[in-house]
Each structure stands twice: as C-alpha cells, then as structure tokens.
Amino acid sequence: MDSSSTLGAPQRLSQKKLSKLARVARALEKAKANATPSDSDPAIPTVPLSTDQAMQDESLSPSEIHHAAILANITGRPYDDVKFFAFSRRSRNGSVDTPLSLVANSRLVLKAAPHFGLVFGAGFAESEVSDMDAAYPSSRPAATESYGYWSDSDLEDEGEDFTEDLSGQSIVDASSTSVQDRKMSESEPKGKDREESASTAEPARQLDSGQLPSESKKAIVRPGRVVHLDDVAYTTWKGFIFFAYFGELNFAPLKSQPGSLRMEPASHAAPLCSPKSMYRIAHKYDISSLREKAVADIKAKLSPSNILEEIFTTFTSLYPEVRDVEIEYLHSNITDRGIQARLPIWLTMLGKNELPSGASDIIASLISKLSVSPEPVKCPYGCYGTVRKYCNSGHYF
Asked: Where is the composition biased (Basic and acidic residues) (predicted)?
C-alpha cells in the first residue's frame, strides 16, 4: 500500500484546504458546545454525529474529511459514528447467519456511497440514535434465507474456522461482536423457535436487571447509528469501508482460478474480498468507480481454463456488463483447444436445463462465431492471397 495514503502519513495541504479544515473544526467545536440533552428524554444523548451540518460540505475530499474527523476526535468527538451488522456465514440448512459488526465514519461512507444519505435521513430506522456498544438485537432475525447470492465466496461455510485476526484494527473495529455476538448468534434459536424466544428474551433480561423497558431504552452509552445489511457479507463490507477510507482494494482470486488460495494480506493492507461480491455492492449503490475496478479485476482473472466456468454462473447471468466482458473474452479465445474440448460438457448441461438463464444465448453466439468463415488474408502488396499465403510477386505474407 502506498505509504502516502496511510492514516498517519504527513501530507502538505494548501492554504485553502487548511482554512476549510479550520472552519470545519470551529463549527464542530460550536456544535459540541451548544449540544444539550433533550428536555423530553434527558437520558438519550443528542451530541451531533460526524455527519452533522459542519461535515456536510460536498466540496471536501475524502482526505479532507479524514483530517477533519481526526481533528474532531482529538477534541473528544467519536471518529466512528455508525455501526453495520452483516452476515458472515453460509449454513448447511440453506440460510446465511452469524451477523458480525463493523464500525465506520459515516461521512466517509457517504462520500463513497451517497445512497446512505437517504438511509441516514429522517423517516428511516437508521436515522435514530442508538447505542453502538449494544449487541445484535434479539428482535431481529439472526439468519436469513433471502440473502440473494448463495455462492458468495466472501461468506464462510459452516464448519470452517473463522480465523481472521481482528486485533489491532482501529479503522474497522469488530470488537463488540468478534466473540460475544458470534456466540450469541450461533446459540440463538433459528426459525419458529427463534421468533417465539425473541418476544420473551428481552423482557426477561430487563426484569433481571430491575429495569423497565423505557429505562433500558435510555441507557445509551455510545450514541451513533446502527445499520443492518441483510444481503452483504461481512468480509465484503469490511473491504468497502477500507475503500471508502483510502480508495484501495485487495481482490481475492476467483474460485475458478486453478490453484486459487486466499493469502492473508499484511496487517496494514486492504482486506481481501471477492471482486464479484464487491461488484454487487457497486451495482446496488450505483458506485461507478468501484464497479469499474471490480469488472477490470474479473476480466484480468479470466483464462481459457476458467472462462466456461465463469460465463455460465448465475452471477454472470444477472449482470449484463460482466456477461459482455466474458463473452468478448470467450469469442477471442474460442480456438483454444482446452475450451473446445470442454465445451461439449456445457452443451450437455444446457440440454439438461442445468445452466442459468441466458446460457442458451451465449451458446448461440458461440455457434454463430464458429460458423462464420474467417476473412480471406490480403496480400500487403495488393495481390490476391492464396491458401499458401504468397503472391505472384514472390512475397510471402
């Protein structure tokens, strides 16, 4: 990773940028000084988050937002003000479960994905002040059967050890769920049993502590926003937050690549994530720069050994941009002997209706490509070419 983009690297800022940061800092100090608890609910803190009016200047670059947030943190404001829960495991029963948490600076997330400006706005549950130190709420399902991307390689498979080292990560902190929340979600009942227990678990805990429901609601220790991502993997979102902070990505190999293994990156490097999973995020939240990076990485990892496996996936069938890139590659390499030797296997699968929607169109384009006669070779000296590729002038071509 370029050392100039790390958190503590010194950077020369222009006088204009320094003045802008100074104005932001003064606005933050003023907002902090004027912040008072609500009269109607004095136990719920109303300290402005880092996405308040002082941080909404659209002209600020990610680097400037980063500096302003750190400056505010020095004066006592929290750097991380939003907590995301995302599922991390694919279970054997057909669901995705084990929600884990990630925390981030909401302004940097907003800069990378303006979609969250709507999510954080009034009228959405995510706009309310919550306790970021609270565990995964028992009122929400700890698993889902409508994840939407079952083959997501950023999900751990049930039975695999979650060996990720969460120590020393001040940028993407999973401290509140790395152990406690995982145990909670794994021991929590699933399905109907889970729904029945959800209605009784919270009151029981409150009675044990001698608190009424209204009192428990007011006990906010670390105010912030909490967002639940039901169709994004924990590993993918961790990579996205790092991208929002530093503009860097570290894409893992495709599963179809021969001998592909996920090598853990250095502790200071961008975390590994699937380019396909990141493309889903970019497509969903309309982040064109991120989408282009993901497509470019997928294209770079195509080869005659894996193109057929990739082009006939459900993922490819869902995204025309990816499909077009892979069709172009396949057409350009259709004369490869390995591709031609394996193509009948996929034709058989097509006949058995075992391929995703759109596979027949891809096969039809291949047949059309193979049936077209190659253009005759033209002599560079203006003569008519022959099958032996030489002309009457004696020149070979």
From this structure: 180-197
Domain range list for the chain: 3-74, 82-244, 303-367
Find out whether 322 and 279 touch, Cβ atoms under 8 Å.
Answer: yes
| Residue spans of alpha helices (H) in 84-212 | 106-112, 115-119, 180-187, 191-208
Average predicted confidence (pLDDT) for the chain: 75
CB burial of residue 178 (10 Å; 0-12, 13-18, 19+): middle
Q: Which of 1-15, 41-55, 143-157 tops mean pLDDT?
A: 143-157
Q: If you write DSSP's letter for every residue of 127-158 in order, what string do you get?
A: GS-EETTS---TTS-SEES--S-TT-TTSEET
User: For position 204, what pLDDT does the model report?
Assistant: 34
Statement: residue 267 has pLDDT above 90 = no
d(CA 250, CA 280) in angstroms, rounded, equals 16
The tokens for 300 are 């770079």
In this prediction, residue 346 carries a pLDDT of 92
Q: Which two tokens stand for residue 268?
A: 């200071």
User: What is the per-residue pLDDT for 260?
Assistant: 67
Is residue 272 classed as helix, strand or coil in its secondary structure?
Answer: strand
The predicted model scores a pTM of 0.69
In angstroms, the CA 25 to CA 75 distance is: 9
